[in-house]
Design brief:
Elements lengths: L8 H5 L9 H8 L5 E2 L11 H11 L11 H11 L6 E4 L1 H13 L5 E5 L4 H9 L3 E5 L8 H11 L3 E5 L11 H10 L5 E5 L14 H5 L4 E6 L12 E4 L2 H6 L11 H12 L1 H24 L3 E2 L6 E5 L4 H13 L2 E2 L11 E5 L3 H22 L1
Parallel strand pairs: 1-11, 3-4, 3-5, 5-6, 6-7
Antiparallel strand pairs: 2-8, 7-8, 9-10, 10-12
Helix pairs in contact: 3-11, 4-11, 5-6, 12-14, 13-14
Bound molecules: pyridoxal-5'-phosphate (PLP).
Length: 374
């Protein structure tokens, strides 16, 4: 069967790639069962019990569409951040918002700057609108701010993406460095500052809201998927000028938010004690992963996120063999997509039961690989 003949040339030209293959798809294709789901940077500590109660409550009202203005959530987020609801818009996770941002800026052939090996879903969105990706290698396992700036200027790019902290390495820049980078950008270049891991970052890594809020060429993206443990709910938001925030209204799916998810986000935001508890669990689990890595003669990288990149000291093929070997043991992890980052594996935090499965399986997998290579 062939596809419809009058799909746009762009759609016809796109490869059939996906940004990530999900653990469910891996289970199906390999006939395996995931026992420790620590690969997708989800948060296995789960959402606040208050968010769960809110979802149970909201389930009965699911016959109603959600408020198309997402007013209550925007008001609550605004109060949380000390800004106005007009400086916020809401979407189905950062991933959806990235698509809308790209759509607002990118025409076929438009140069878009990002880091080589950076967050792939952004690249996927750029490809989907026919943009031309210009990639800048990481430097010392961090996104290279100077290199990104240089590429922006060289290409006269209207869009640049930066995740702080970043995925897949878990690195971060200081707030001062980010603000300086932002101010050095041409006013004609829009920065997507992806702060998916903002809550898990150390003090001093995240620029204050005031420092960037008046800049029309900055859109910050945040999510309930990580620290709040609600990846399956699909709730993300943008912070920008009122004019930029309202631009999303021109193209977003006004009835796209899930009413149950929005109720949960409101309750989660309100439960500050639970967030604090989760953040200390995440920190402890990062340490746990780092200890397991060291016990196996591997080198954990410092992390500002809910995952740890672990340097295997070898190449991408070796990391791939570890990822595949762990999956055989029911331990789902991932790894960066390009060299030299792919000398690392990437392990997400999770409850102690998951950490123990990883701890038990890793030496077995490494031993098998070691025996196989002799
Ligand atoms: C840097 C970064 N941005 C965005 C996302 C996705 O966020 P959301 O679940 O809100 O779409 C992720 C998830 O892994 C991420 O690592």
């Amino acid at each position: 069967m062939s596809s419809f003949s009058r799909f746009t040339p762009l759609i016809q030209s796109l490869p059939a790639t996906v940004p990530f293959i999900g653990p469910e798809a891996i289970e199906r294709s390999r006939g395996l069962t995931v026992k420790a789901r620590i690969g997708a940077n989800e948060n296995g500590f789960g959402p606040s019990p208050k968010a769960i109660a809110a979802m149970e409550q909201a389930a009965r009202a699911t016959w109603q569409y959600a408020d198309p203005e997402n007013y209550d959530l925007r008001v609550a987020l605004a109060a949380h951040l000390g800004i106005t609801p007009h400086q916020i818009n809401v979407g189905g996770g950062i991933d959806e918002l990235l698509g809308l941002i790209v759509r607002m800026v990118v025409l076929p052939g438009t140069p878009v700057v990002t880091s080589l090996g950076g967050y792939p879903t952004f690249n996927f969105q750029v490809a989907g609108f026919g943009g031309r990706l210009v990639t800048v290698p990481y430097k010392n396992d961090q996104e290279d701010l100077e290199g990104l700036l240089e590429a922006v200027k060289r290409e006269n790019a209207p869009l640049v993406y930066l995740a702080n902290p970043d995925n897949p390495m878990g690195s971060w820049h200081s707030a001062e460095e980010i603000v300086a980078f932002t101010k050095a950008l041409p006013e004609t270049t829009l920065l997507v500052l992806d702060e998916a891991y903002g809550e898990t970052a150390p003090a001093g890594a995240i620029p204050s809201i005031e420092s960037l809020i008046d800049l029309p060429n900055v859109i910050r993206t945040r999510t309930f998927s990580k620290a709040y443990g609600m990846a399956g709910s699909r709730v993300g938001y943008v912070i920008s000028t009122p004019e930029n925030a309202s631009s999303f209204d021109k193209i977003r799916n006004h009835f796209g938010m899930n009413r149950i998810a929005v109720s949960a986000a409101l309750a989660a935001l309100d439960d500050k004690a639970y967030l604090e508890e989760t953040l200390s669990r995440i920190k402890a689990a990062r340490e746990r992963i780092a200890d397991i890595a060291r016990a196996n003669q591997l080198s954990p990288l410092r992390s500002a996120t809910n995952f740890v990149a672990i340097d295997t000291g070898r190449d991408g093929a070796y990391s791939r063999a570890i990822v595949d070997g762990l999956m055989e043991e029911g331990v789902f992890i991932r790894m960066p997509g390009v060299a030299p980052l792919n000398r690392c594996i990437r392990v997400s935090v999770g409850p102690e039961a998951d950490m123990m499965l990883f701890e038990e399986a890793l030496p077995r997998v490494l031993k098998r690989l070691d025996q196989g290579s002799r």
